[in-house]
Amino acid sequence: MSATGTAQSGTTTARAARRSGAQRKLLAFASLILLVAGFSIASPNFFQLSNIMAILQAASVNGVLAVGVTLIIITGGIDLSIGTLMTFCAVMTGVVLTWGGMPLPLGIAAALATGACCGLVSGTLVAKAKIPPFIATLGMMLILKGLSLIVTGTKPIYFNDTPSFTLIAQGSLIGAVVPAFPVPNGVLVLFVVAAAVAWILGRTVLGRYTFALGSNEEAARLSGVNTDGWKIAIYALAGGIVGIGGLLIASRLNSAQPALGLGYELEAIAAVVIGGTSLSGGRGTVLGTLIGALIMAVLTNGLRVMSVAPEWQTVVTGIIIIVAVYGDQLRRGAAR
Amino acid sequence: MSELVRLEGIDKHFPGVHALRAVGFDLRPGEVHALMGENGAGKSTLMKVLSGVYQPDGGRILIDGAEVSLPTPKAARDLGIGIIHQELALMRDLTAAQNIWIGREPRLSFGRIDEARLNAEAEAIFATMRLGIDPRAPVAGLSIALQQMVEIAKALSFRSRVLIMDEPTAALNDAEIAELFTIVRRLRAEGVGIIYISHKMDEIKRVADRVTVMRDGATVGTVEAADTPISRIISMMVGRELTEEKAAIPDLAAAPAALEVSHLSRGADLRDIGFTLRKGEILGFAGLMGAGRTELARAIFGAEPADTGEIRVHGRPVTIRTPRDAVRAGIGYLSEDRKQYGLALGLDVRANIAMASLPRYADRIGRIDEGALARVARDYIRTLGIRTPDDTREVRLLSGGNQQKVVIAKWLLRDCDILIFDEPTRGIDVGAKAEIYRLLNELAGLGKAIIVISSELPEVLRLAHRIAVMCEGRLTGILPGGASQEEIMELATEGMAA
């Protein structure tokens, strides 16, 4: 967390919106603490190391997807294809590792490359063909869902021939060093990805143009910025990050499940929104998204620990999203 | 004479700002009362109090001599106070008539809208304004000037007795302004009281009966427009006398050409345009709205590239298909609409100044050197006199003049030596205008080649070393800087009568 914190503090947006942004993140962070405290009081089983690890593990896939789509949402776009793209990346890894019998690094590369290529296609449709992001990625969502089923013949691909594959998400590098603190690798991956994206947003040209596109794309274009090219690059980067999400889910399930994926995009977007990123673009932080993903995971886990029926968990999640955004509106209204 | 509106001792605080200090103001029926003052003087705040948007902290509002409270904009409207905002508030995809009657559409049974009546009544209002606007035309297809007319028609449709006009002529050309004034005078004759906010002195002289000047949230004074010289009004606004002198025109015959344009054409907008801009020269572009000046600027800059023609920069031919090509050739464009095309309002001063030059401040992997950027940003803040607490202030919080300087800094940092200013002082108050003029002269003195497009003839006359005049997509002539308004207007309307 501290890594993302420092990377964020130098960004233009963080600087420009230092007070309101900090307030908003504080609000989100306070809600997270409040939720954790509430569940801890309500159930003795909640605040256990094993359960906390389970929460983090559960947040990892959604968190990675959410961090990826944060980039696109800051440009003022949206990506509905990330859920089925995640699955398609997992499938391509299965094709390379299980069917092709190739070594693990190639399987990882396959997921990343598949994600980046599909992001490139989405980005090109949005930037060059001028198709609204909602429509372009809705199309991609269905195309990728279909392709996953076609490639696999609707059957899961298992990774039993590559035993080390499950270690990507389920092993624990940290646990090997500090046995008392067995943080699963999936969680480590989430935090590394989040830190890297926070750094890109805060410190690099790509990050600065991400905010510029969302803030005023035409002004950026008239400043001589290759807006189309950068937009495509941002979608491709987000796609690559979704590829990482694909690796995580495949590793956790030890299989690529072609029917999976639909709905993940909305969970990820929900995490971004709870984290305070504006859907109209120009504003947003990775730290906020991370907190948003954790809030959702804590909620799901806590309600389950308290034996609330799953259908009610969904209802509560929906309410939380609405409350989070409404709270943000109130705060903004007060600021104005 | 009885007063239509009387404001007494109006006070208004915002967090950290005493926006209005015991302001007094009155409006008689059948008068045009100009309200003037620099940006931030409190004009808009006062008008928001009068139109029910803000609640005053102290003071009284009297309508027809009776004290009223205006808790909502609707309450103000019901008392006959109409306001036309500076920024158009129309829904672009609805028709003119739908916009006028939005929220109070004539109904038929079952909640159906009586479109026929809606259109007929809109048409009737346009008829009284002697405008040929089709009420069924979507607003998006109308020119800015006609959109403004729709706004006025909407205000009239409320049968307003008090009409507040906030810079109504900002987007209008001379002919349209004359039309607007005809309407204003007719409304005045019918007994409507008009509060007229504008930065343009000549308009005040033409249309206003009285002038009230505000400064720093207080009224400086109210004077009769007819017997008060403009210089007196300006000094009331800025608290000092402004010199309206034009800088000496340098002899540039021997200066090398910075930009040569020949046979530039695009559809019906631009027809065979050719001219040469020299180093250190300010070339003014005059003409009526729609003459093709902005189109020419956008073609040279590659925002909407030309179909045919040649552009040379410093003697070398260049191909400009996109703004990126133009920027690489050293051409910077400062749009008339800074907020839409020039600035990322939500980003800070530093990021906006850096917008066109980022790669230069990044290493191989795209990491930005924020320290170096902060230094150059602070340099420009100092040398251009940008009034901002620091370089991390969001530009939306800056005044118009300071926003314009941020855009200038953006192009200077990019080493652009050909600068195209489209309406450089639109929406900028008088004191800051003079500063922008001085800045333009200094830039020219440093050898920058500058094009200034302006609809305000006095501005062109004051700034330009030479004046190019356009009419209906053609360049009808280039006059020396000392040309008279008559000579320019002749070229600006050349062939139009035929």
Automatic annotation (TrEMBL), chain A:
Superkingdom assignment: Bacteria
Gene Ontology molecular function, alphabetical: transmembrane transporter activity
PANTHER family the record matches: ABC TRANSPORTER PERMEASE PROTEIN YPHD-RELATED-RELATED (PTHR32196), RIBOSE IMPORT PERMEASE PROTEIN RBSC (PTHR32196:SF72)
The keyword Plastid appears for this protein: no
Main localization, broad class: membrane
Segments traversing the membrane: 26-46, 52-73, 80-100, 106-127, 134-153, 173-201, 232-253, 259-279, 286-306, 312-330
Keywords: Cell membrane, Membrane, Transmembrane, Transmembrane helix
Membrane topology field: Multi-pass membrane protein
Subcellular locations according to the entry: Cell membrane
Native species: Amaricoccus solimangrovi
Official protein name in the record: ABC transporter permease
GO CC aspect terms: plasma membrane
UniProt cross-references to InterPro entries, sorted A to Z: ABC_transp_permease
Pfam families (alphabetical): BPD_transp_2
UniProtKB/TrEMBL annotation, chain B:
Subcellular location as annotated: Cell membrane
Keyword Repeat carried by entry: yes
Example of a GO cellular component annotation carried by this entry: plasma membrane
Every ABC transporter domain range: 5-241, 247-497
UniProt entry tagged with the keyword Cell cycle: no
InterPro entries the UniProt entry points to: AAA+_ATPase, ABC_carbohydrate_import_ATPase, ABC_transporter-like_ATP-bd, ABC_transporter-like_CS, P-loop_NTPase
GO molecular function: ATP binding; ATP hydrolysis activity
Keywords: ATP-binding, Cell membrane, Membrane, Nucleotide-binding, Repeat, Sugar transport, Translocase, Transport
Protein's name in the database: Sugar ABC transporter ATP-binding protein
Source organism: Amaricoccus solimangrovi
Origin organism lineage: Bacteria, Pseudomonadati, Pseudomonadota, Alphaproteobacteria, Rhodobacterales
